[in-house]
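Supplementary Methods S3. Input chains for the assembly prediction are listed below.
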Amino acid sequence: MTTPDNNARRKFIAAAGAGVAGLGFTAIAPGLHLMAVGEASAATEARKAGTAASPAVRWGLLIDAGKCAPGCTKCIDACHTENGVSEKLPDPRQNSQWIRKIELVDRRNGKKTELPMMCQHCAEPPCVDVCPTGASMKRADGIVLVDRHTCIGCRYCMMACPYKARSLVHVPLTEQNPEVPRGQGCVESCTLCVHRVDKGQTPACVESCPEGAMMFGDLNDPASAIAKRIASVPTTQVRADLRLNQGVRYQGL
Amino acid sequence: MKLLRVLVTAVTAFLAVSSAPTLAGDGGRTAKPVIEIANPGKCVAPADEMRRNHMEMLKHQRDRTLRAGIRGEPASLNACIECHASKKTGSVLGGKENFCESCHSYVAVKLDCFECHQPKAKFKAAGLKP
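Predicted structure tokens for the full assembly:
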């Protein structure tokens, strides 16, 4: 369902529109306008109703593990509140987990580093490769989602994910956020708060972090704050050796 | 011949009278759907079209929204719920007078949407900011 990425053409159109990025279109003759696709301002604006997610955009996160406070779970709480993940099962291993904290310990000197771990929104997602029904999918703007209308709950994607990012819902649910449908028998994971992103907002975890350790933006747009930071400081993708080109990057690991 | 005509008339009249009590309606055996809507008014399409095609409209809209990311389409399940939820319970499910459930139980068609979707209008999950 993805549209082929016609980068050369898009770059030309974006360059044509760059002069009047704020306006969103460029006048090529009086009364005749050329729409600018993927211009700089697209990163933070709500997409117009009726327009599809653009392949010119690639949403991503940059997480500064150096700033992540030990013991803080504000991002987890905000995520699970936003997405209505509230069920507490007798076996806590069955609880859905859209985002979790991981502690890394350097055994030689005891140095501890904490970081939030969630769906890494890979460019080449293994969960999408293994899905037998096509329910696991990547949207044109790089957000990896589960189409619950076709998910049969087989959990192949949970096995395939190198980050243990996905969960299966084990019980019937009634307290869903209307914008985040979720239910028993389907696999789910971080959606990068797709319902917020489409409205021009940032994901709930990014907004909640008191340390400002998380940054959200368009990785494809060289003018965005996240792309500038990635271009200027050393950042890593977790398990970069798998060459999945993750959309979530970490700093200070 | 005249006798036959009389006989046919008598049989027809008998059938019409004897089948009348089984027709749906007030006092009938089959309870007709009771439509109680919080915000009656103009729908996105005429009622007969909605009755016949709402499932197709929602099916195509869900694919466009989830897979392509197109938001703000007229056919949206959340928009349905906002208008059609019951005044009493604020939901489209739960009892005979609730919009979705009343018709679906009448025609005996399984209603899967609300295993994942929220059936209550203006529902706010606990702790969610407006």
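The interface with chain A takes residues 62-64, 66-73, 78, 81, 115-118, 120, 123, 125-128 of chain B (CB under 8 Å). Residues 30-115 of chain B form one domain.
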